[in-house]
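> agent: user asked for a holo structure of the chain below bound to fe (ii) ion. Plan: (1) validate sequence alphabet, (2) canonicalize SMILES, (3) run complex prediction with ligand conditioning, (4) return tokens. Step 1... ok. Step 2... ok. Step 3 dispatched.
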Amino acid sequence: MTEQLKIAVTSDWHLSNNNKFFNLYDVQLLIDKMAEEADILLFLGDFVNSHSKLDAQDRELAFKIAHLLEKVSIPKYGLIGNHGRGELKKILSHSGGLIMMNRDRYSISNSSNSQTLGIIGIEGSFDGSLAHADYAPRYPNSYTMRRRIREVSDDISFLKTALKTSPYRHNIIAMHYLPGQSTIGRESNRKHYSLGSKLYEQIADIYREKVFAIVHGHAHLGSVEGKTHAGIPIYNAAIPALFRRSRQITQQQFYQPYIKLEI
Ligand SMILES: [Fe+2]
Ligand SMILES: [Fe+2]
């Protein structure tokens, strides 16, 4: 570890056996590069494409991902996202050594202990507060919506306490869902209500002097960079969004398919 702390963040690989866009070989190159350049790795979810239960092929893929992660010797933290929950989480933590977070907090210091970064990890959820004006949630009182709203509210209680009591000057909030509007990009207006909640960035703004950045995934069509109302940087590490940006930048700029932060 160097004097600075370098953090590399990636998300939303959506690996499957027929995914030609981003495959296991790409993941191997990505992980190697991230581990070479950073001190801490953050994986923000949607590792595989299957929604809940893993079938035999997905399970094999999950063990292959775990095998790649296992070789990384620097601290590595992850969220599961909304694809391939339960069993995938176990495989990645038990066989891959990935520290899976859901309403958890950790801290990492550099070699001289002059810098410590607090990591606050929450999966996140949605509550309809990001709904586009023309597309309110269709079933606002459904069981699913009520469950989701409760999840956001539990996240917010956790986040508030985590930030309030954090002894560190620099904290990163790592989540899968969106913390607010600013990186929503070109996501379909119909989907906005289900992408996240603006309550996350509102809480972050209250404790803004302690929040270094918010990183998230999930927004495949989102923009890569944004800001909270009070100016905290927000980064969307979803691979599809990063790839789209790579086509917009000039050849002189070196493109990296992950977010790199330094404190
Ligand atoms: Fe995703
Ligand atoms: Fe997602």
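> agent: step 4 complete. Summary for user: The pocket of fe (ii) ion (ligand 1) is lined by residues 12, 14, 46, 218, 220 (CB under 6 Å). The mean pLDDT is 92.
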